[in-house]
Structure formats: C-alpha cells, structure tokens
Amino acid sequence: MSNSRPYSFDQARTAAANASRAQAAAEDFIRQAYKDFAIAEHAYRVALALRITELHAEGVAWTVTGDLARGDKHVAHLKRERDIQEGVKEAASQHGWKASKDHDDTASLIAWSMRRELAEGYGNAPEPPESRVIGGQRAA
C-alpha cells in the first residue's frame, strides 16, 4: 500500500489477517516463555533446597546454609538460567504488548481507509442507469 492511498478491501483483509497472526504468535511466545520460566524456577528451587539440606547434614549451621548453597556451582548455574528465563518472559510480555498495539494500529488504518475511500470516492463506479423498478412505478 502506498502512503497516500487507502487500503483496498483485499489489502485490508490481508493486513488484518497478518496482524491477527502476529498477535497469535506473540501470545504463543508469551505462553512458552512463562512455561520455560516456571521450569527453570522449579529446577533452581529444588536444587537450592536439596543443597541446603545436604550442607546441614554435613554439619553446617542452618544460618549459613542458604548462602553457601547459593554459591554452589550447580545451584548458581540454575539461578542464572532462571534469571535468563525471567528476562525472556519480560521480553515476551513486551512483545505481546507491541503486537497488540500493532493490531490496534492496523484496525485504525483499515477504518481510516474505509472513511477516506468513502469521502474521496476511490473505487466507486457511477451507479448504473435505472433498468427496472422493483415494487414501484417508473418516474415519467
């Protein structure tokens, strides 16, 4: 579509379908990001709890087991993965917001196109000459 012409009906339909597909893809991305975050959070919390319990069983005081467990290479790695997934989750949310706004913009442009076409008469052929009156009489 050029910048000065409104959407044709087919262009409007295509733009609306594309915007809907982009919105659906963003929603799928959000769902997957939240799922991946939950999996990473679960793995981190389970590993942390297990390491705290192991450290205490080894004779370490409860007051320091949490700090020591968080410093464990495996636990720290899982926390990093969880933090990364949290960032992806936030990015997915922003992507979803943008897709929603883009969808709204597309709907606005379609509405503008309809109004402009109506106002300027784009694509309107003159009415055909009257050939037959239905349910009435012909004017003389």
Number of strands: 0
Globally, the shape reads: rod-shaped
Oligomer state equals: single chain
Beta-strand content: under 5%
* Residues in helices, as a percent range: over 70%
Computed Rg: 31 Å
One letter per element, helices H and strands E, the order comes to: HHH
The end-to-end distance, rounded to whole angstroms, is 46 Å
Count of helical stretches: 3
Main sheet properties: none
Brief overview:
76% of the residues lie in helices and 0% in strands. The protein is mostly helical and 140 residues long. The protein has one domain.
Describe the fold and architecture:
The chain has 140 residues and is an all-alpha fold. The chain has one domain. Helix content is 76%, strand content 0%. The chain contains three helices and no strands. It is rod-shaped.
